[in-house]
Amino acid sequence: MSRLTVVSLRKVANRTLPIYQKIAGDAVYATRLTQAIRSNNLNALGQLLRQATFGFNDFGTNGFGFNIGFAAPLPANQVENAITKRGTVKPTTVSLRSIARRLLRLLRRIAADKAFATQLVLAARKSNNLRLRALVAPLLPSGSLVAARGDSTGIVLEIKASTGAVFVTQFFVL
What we know:
By secondary structure, the protein is an alpha+beta fold. The protein has one domain (6-173). It is built from 6 helices and 6 strands. It has a 6-stranded antiparallel beta sheet with strand order 1-2-3-6-5-4. β2 and β3 (78-85) form a beta hairpin. The chain is globular and about 40 Å long.
């Protein structure tokens, strides 16, 4: 059975951090990515993801967000990050850039701080959602963490962008 590990979580944070940095810092890139997501254009999405990161095994979109996966060490085969706008209205460039900016501190902390990543993984494995919230909330703007859930396979965060749109961000293993 696949299980989230500290190594897997840190790997996906390290590899996706450049994507979110590019979304937050480059309006043209963010606009192109939003267009690829909204139109389910996998060719454009793949090209854009390759501009920001490397070594991914798969990627996809559902019109409301995207996912990207990387090889993971056992007891998992793959580690994924997915971000999807909740609801029936597709994301805008403004909302995507806002959520990317909000995720940067969290991703940097996971990538740089093994002890912090360990605390996240342990809280997730124990389904200790209050502990997950306590760990994540200080790294986000006040009131933007809507929900935090975890289990042995991953972490799910619902985060409100400055536009009011809620995005579901997942870190999970397959």
